[in-house]
Amino acid sequence: MDTQHEPPTVVTATGLETRAVRRRAAGARVVEAGVGLANVGRASFRGLAVSCGLAGGVRDDLATGTILIPSVVATTAGRSIACDAMWTARLRAAAARLGYAYVDAPLLTSETLITGSARAPWASRGFAAVDMETAAIPASAIAAVRVILDTPKRELSPDWLYPARAMLRPKNWGQALWLARVAPRCADVAAHIVAAALAQGA
């Protein structure tokens, strides 16, 4: 597969991430795959897929807003996947041109939320952050740019897997205000980098 010239599919999990990509990269091929790829089923993506969106940090030293452009993604079961070298380099070059610093460390993909004390063991194994999609994307090649949202020092309720349900619980309202302010900015940064990388290859 010639990933250098084949236009990639940009894979997002949520509407927030999808809208950010469509604002930044009009005309890009975007698939809103759902959290944990719930919307994809058994479908596969032709060519390369670029995973774009948010992630949960597992390291204490990485704050909200940290950009991760990994060389490797892995599953909790131990499957490791090398990210497409050319597209990873393109994403990193785009981030640098835009003035964004980024981290090169492995990204973990989990089938379940990893929160609280469960983050630390993965940090000790070298992972920077966790999502629920990237390593499971059914594509011939992948690359990723993920921006850390929640961290070990700023936990989010697991209720946010189902936002409508989360808003019914008053204990989540403070988090809702923080999310409304911060999550769109983080999603926009990821989308900005992807859009710049796509423009470089146009």
Structural class, please?
alpha/beta
Based on CA atoms alone, the radius of gyration comes out at 16 Å
Mean pLDDT: 92
Order of helices and strands: EHEEEEEHEHEEHH
Number of strands: 9
Strand content: 15-25%
- First-to-last CA distance: 18 Å
- The tally of helices reads 5
Shape: globular
Low-confidence stretches are none
| Helical amount | 25-40%
The largest sheet is: 9 strands, mixed
Q: Could you outline the blueprint of secondary structure elements for this entry?
A:
Blueprint: E1 9-12, H1 15-24, E2 29-32, E3 45-57, E4 67-68, E5 72-75, E6 80-82, H2 85-98, E7 107-109, H3 119-124, E8 129-131, E9 139-148, H4 163-166, H5 173-201
Helix pairs in contact: 1-5, 2-5
What structural keywords apply?
alpha/beta; globular; 9 strands; 202 residues; 5 helices
Write a short abstract of this structure.
The protein has 202 residues and is α/β, with parallel strands linked by helices. 31% of the residues lie in helices and 23% in strands.
Textual characterization of the structure:
There is one protein chain. The chain has 202 residues and is α/β, with parallel strands linked by helices. The protein contains five helices and nine strands. It has helices at residues 15-24, 85-98, 119-124, 163-166, 173-201; strands spanning 9-12, 29-32, 45-57, 67-68, 72-75, 80-82, 107-109, 129-131, 139-148. α3 (119-124) links the parallel β7 (107-109) and β8 (129-131). α2 packs across α5. The mean pLDDT is 92.
